[in-house]
Amino acid sequence: MTQAITDNQRALSRKYLAYEAVSNFWFISAIWLFFYHIFISDQQVGILDGLAFAVGLLAEVPAGALADRFGRDKTVRMGQILAGAGLLIQAFGSSFVPFFVGQAILMVGTSFVSGADEALFFSRLNFDRTSAEWRKLVTRASQLSLTSSLIGTIVGAWLFTINPRIPWILTGIAFLTSSLLVWSVRDARPEKAMQKFSIELFEHLKSIRSGFSKFLTSPYLVYIPIIISLQGLFYTAGWGLLRPMLLIRFHFSAFASSIVVAASCLITVGILALMHKYAEDLSEGQVIVFIAAIASASLLLSLADIGIWGSIVIFVLYAGDHILYPFMSEVLNSRSEEDQRATILSVASFLRTLPYVALAPLIGYLSTQGRLEFFLIGWSVLIGLSVFIYLSLKKKDVHVSMAKNIGI
């Protein structure tokens, strides 16, 4: 019998839902590449993203470790403020340099938030870990965030036709507002007394190393191929160049692109409603294999000049990300120790971001040269290989667990 949800958990759950909704008003979702195209080329965008995302990547795991040591609440608030500032800098930029500076600040801010907000709410809510309450809450939050994204996408595309800078300004304001929503949520753990700087630095570096070493052990190792290939693909589509480049490849205009993305949001909200209803019946392995198969197929479908049917590809990449996320969140949170949860989640985010940081300049170059198909084929093959490795490691992990249970 699962634990009853308390009034405090309900109130905190509502705050988490509001936070997720506001922080996902991405008014620039469908038009950011069109905005960049006013001032810089695809190749410059690839270089910009590669450099800026590298800055964010370097901040990713240290940010998680800082959150675990000095307070997840402080890290989340600071991250949202930095992200908002980075967006506002880009809003008023007109060349490579302010775009790079703003994007780098945005990525550092999102690195501070990544993992820390989940770890903060997961710890404060303290759901029964034998229940599916956390996965159900994350699924519900995804529905709200997608609704916000849908509204932001359509409104942002319309405002883009009035003034291209307005969507950037509104997105920056949304991030600053989300920092206020989470301001009263305090870390559940007692604050640690400040030590000498040298001792604190040593402990900080030790926690980072420990976070990476954890991913080489059986509870986490099995998910590395999926995080890198599948979540890495969704990151490249959602945050990086891939989705807007595919929309342009399928001959969609800026406003038509917003309609495709908004439609993908709407359908995904419905799918997540079904996931929430049947949360206890869904199998992690089946979901991962299914999403991997359709994601790989969608990349291969993108090789053809399919025009309006390309909206199916955009939908698969959009929905796949949000369907997979609750399962990966549950897996990583439930297997993490309390004092290292944000670090573990940041390592996972690091691994998810790493492929795009390495490949962003290449994607920009291939797009400029009209050779994007090389990337599409290569990543499709990588997903297939990763699923094979995942299933092999999962099977081995099950056998080891069974052997331990019978005392072998």
Briefly characterize the structure:
This protein is an all-alpha fold. The chain is built from 17 helices and no strands.
List keywords for this structure.
17 helices; mainly alpha; single chain; 408 residues
Count all strands and give the number.
0
Radius of gyration, Cα only, in angstroms?
21 Å
Shape: globular
Strand content: under 5%
Spans of 5+ residues with little confidence (pLDDT < 50)?
193-197
Class of secondary structure makeup: mainly alpha
pLDDT averaged over residues: 83
Q: In DSSP terms, counting alpha (H) and pi (I) runs of 4 or more, how many helices?
A: 17
| Amino- and carboxy-terminal Cα gap | 31 Å
- Largest sheet, if any? none
Q: Summarize the amount of helix as a percent range.
A: over 70%
Order of helices and strands: HHHHHHHHHHHHHHHHH
Describe this structure in words.
The protein is mostly helical and about 400 residues long. It has helices spanning about 5-20, 30-35, 40-70, 70-90, 95-115, 115-125, 135-160, 165-180, 195-215, 220, 225-240, 240-250, 255-275, 285-300, 310-335, 340-370, 375-405. Mean pLDDT is about 85; it is low at about 195.
Topology:
Elements: H1 7-22, H2 32-37, H3 42-70, H4 72-91, H5 96-113, H6 116-125, H7 133-162, H8 166-181, H9 197-214, H10 218-221, H11 224-238, H12 242-249, H13 254-277, H14 284-301, H15 310-335, H16 341-369, H17 373-405
